[in-house]
Amino acid sequence: MSIQLIVLDVDGSMTDGRITYTENGDEIKSFSVKDGLAIASWRKLGRHVAIITGRQSSIVRRRAKELGIEHFYQGVEKKKEVLEEILESLDLTMENVAAIGDDLNDFSMLKAAKKAFVPLDATSYLNAVSPLRLSKKGGDGAVREMIEVLIVEESLEEKYLDLWL
């Protein structure tokens, strides 16, 4: 069974986990363009992407829209349950899922996925569900590293590179 869906946590996976507020109360987050290019490439290969995050943020909504992420869920407490709903809508199983997360609220989702990745700076409690600790930190290319590992494992390297020739 091949990986058809990647599931992304946001704070600590797509970002460095910091939340900065301006004097006016506006929230600031930074995303890696490298992650974005890999996400866009994964989609161009005909694969699916979901964001399931525990917080609500208009910034994350904007980033998801920019990347064309079709499955976008915010304010989620039970990420595994939302993942199961997505799989039902796509007629896929957990055997088709790779996920990335960095903290305890990602535990059940990561445990359920066929492949679970964690950024370098993820909590060590996730070692129990993911032997795949990446060499990159959240917000610093961890999502891209995950996708490129999958590209190799799925034998998609030629198609991946052809997207940009």
Number of structurally distinct domains: 1
Distance between the termini: 28 Å
Seen as an oligomer or otherwise, the chain set is: single chain
Percent of sequence in beta strands: 15-25%
Count of alpha/pi helices: 6
CATH level-4 homologous superfamily: HAD superfamily/HAD-like
CATH architecture: 3-Layer(aba) Sandwich
Strand order of the largest sheet: 5-4-1-6-7-8
| Topology order in helix (H) and strand (E) letters | EEEHEHEHEHEEHH
Helix residue percentage: 25-40%
Outline of the structure:
By secondary structure, this protein is of the alpha/beta class. The chain has helices spanning 33-44, 58-67, 79-90, 107-112, 142-153, 157-162; strands at 5-8, 20-21, 27-28, 48-52, 71-73, 97-100, 115-118, 132-133.
Commentary on this structure:
The protein is an alpha/beta fold. It has a single domain, classed as Rossmann fold (3-Layer(aba) Sandwich), CATH 3.40.50.1000. The chain is 35% helix and 16% strand. The strands form 2 sheets. Strands 5-4-1-6-7-8 form a 6-stranded parallel sheet, with helices on both faces. The protein has a two-stranded antiparallel sheet with strand order 2-3. Helix 1 runs parallel beside helix 5 (142-153). The chain starts with a strand and ends with a helix. The model has no long low-confidence stretch (mean pLDDT 96).
